[in-house]
Amino acid sequence: xxxxxxxxxxxxxxxxxxxxxxxxxxxxxxxxxxxxxxxxxxxxxxxxxxxxxxxxxxxxxxxxxxxxxxxxxxxxxxxxxxxxxxxxxxxxxxxxxxxxxxxxxxxxxxxxxxxxxxxxxxxxxxxxxxxxxxxxxxxxxxxxxxxxxxxxxxxxxxxxxxxxxxxxxxxxxxxxxxxxxxxxxxxxxx
Length: 190
Known about the structure:
single chain, alpha+beta, DNA polymerase, domain 1, 35% helix, 2Fe2S_fd_BS, 2 iron, 2 sulfur cluster binding, 2Fe-2S-bd, Oxidoreductase, Aldehyde_Oxdr_Iron-Sulfur
């Protein structure tokens, strides 16, 4: 008896459940682009080295070209199409526009998804390879340009928009910190 090489899976993408048949070897990237017509996620190197295909899996960044679609079943998947809140851009998207954090735009969806995760990782106090003091009691390091470059190093931009990308991530992190502080202050006064 031959084993089946395909399955029908249900993926939770951008808050919507999508059921589709897949070959067990289908990557999440190919399922998104070829079967679900979510073409914002880009195919760059197809080897997990450029970051163009970065999506968020349960809030953490992942290169979708190395993730099998069947292994993503039951996880919350956010693509660039699900980042904005209706017509209101996510703060990272707005910052990329404000600082021209793109040139050709091909890598931009992966850059934005990665930046969203970077800001959350930093806010949670995760150290990076360039964090000087990694002791938990030291708290979150300052989100310097060096920290941003290190944390975003898995996303390549062939056009070289790195200076603007770093500025956009810094601005979005500042916006998010103000929003979080305002929400916390509102809770205290309520």
